[in-house]
Amino acid sequence: MIKAGIIGGAGYTAGELLRILLRHPEVEIDFVYSTSQPGKPVAGKHQDLLGETDLQFTGQLNKDVDVIFLCLGHNNSRKFLEENEISVNTKIVDLSTDYRMASTDHSFIYGLPEFNKEAIRSANHLANPGCFATAISLAILPLASAKLLKDEVHVNAVTGATGAGTSLSATTHFTWRDNNFSSYKSFEHQHLNEIGQSLTKLQPDFRKDVNFIPNRGNFSRGIHATAYTKFSGDLEEARNIFKNAYKDAAFTFVVEEELHLKQVVNTNKCLLRLQKFGDKLLVTSIIDNLLKGASGQAVQNMNLMFGLEEKTGLQLKANYF
């Protein structure tokens, strides 16, 4: 059995990890670390787990587990690893932004399985992609892989309230979020950096802008993204490019039906729909921001890192109604 530890156990991504790992046939949860909840029952914070686990939060680390998941706020993972000694034999999966950009000062591999699977298999330290970055990258990377991105990319995407985490802010209170809609960080969202890194890795001569407008929706979870760019081929050519790119993908599927979030919420899927309008190709991409956009993808990556079948423990089912 793989012994796993979770750091930052009180947040949304940790809650999703717990739900998956408690049912994972190859994993035993060794500890759930939280500086705000030590000694308290895990099911007291993640109340859907009542009756399913007797685990308690702890303020103590077991530095010799097989894998550690870092579910800390952005800029805190690096600080945690600097302040705590972890065994060289322990694999690390970080769900923050701290190590997503390639650098000579760390050994983390970027964990987008559809385009980096072989590197992930041999990784000891892995940077899990961001939620917007996952949805958008999967919508446009097949074109970059075919060296067919020729113009600017325009993206509009809406995320649910859980994308902001559990900490309260002016834009996460129910009275603000309910019956409301807003844009934020237009053209400068932090996930643009990792999207650009993936694009230029596949198509080094790509120098156009990715124009991204992120939006807050008044629903709990999910991301609905639309991306369009100029494309000289026809729709059938585009579909063939995407289907070839994802022919071996465990969770990413190209479909022809209209898409809506209930198709993917509570699953680790990404669904993509392609449409052609004049000289523009429109790609719609939908994911669950907490699963394919965070914890589900983290477990998918862990499976690859330990030589397991990619779908192990991730046969999750959408709550359609």
UniProtKB/TrEMBL annotation:
PROSITE patterns: ARGC. GO terms for cellular component: cytoplasm. It comes from Christiangramia salexigens. GO terms for biological process: L-arginine biosynthetic process. InterPro entries: AGPR, AGPR_AS, AGPR_dimerisation_dom, AGPR_type-1, NAD(P)-bd_dom_sf, Semialdehyde_DH_NAD-bd. Its EC number is 1.2.1.38. The active site is at 131. This is N-acetyl-gamma-glutamyl-phosphate reductase. Keywords: Amino-acid biosynthesis, Arginine biosynthesis, Cytoplasm, NADP, Oxidoreductase. GO terms for molecular function: N-acetyl-gamma-glutamyl-phosphate reductase activity; NAD binding; NADP+ binding. HAMAP family: ArgC_type1. It catalyses: N-acetyl-L-glutamate 5-semialdehyde + phosphate + NADP(+) = N-acetyl-L-glutamyl 5-phosphate + NADPH + H(+). Belongs to the NAGSA dehydrogenase family. Type 1 subfamily. Residues 3-123 form the Semialdehyde dehydrogenase NAD-binding domain. The gene is argC. It holds the Pfam family Semialdhyde_dhC_1. Catalyzes the NADPH-dependent reduction of N-acetyl-5-glutamyl phosphate to yield N-acetyl-L-glutamate 5-semialdehyde. The keyword Oxidoreductase applies. It comes from the Bacteria. CDD domains: AGPR_1_C, AGPR_1_N. It is found in: Cytoplasm. Pathway: Amino-acid biosynthesis; L-arginine biosynthesis; N(2)-acetyl-L-ornithine from L-glutamate: step 3/4. Its main location: cytoplasm.
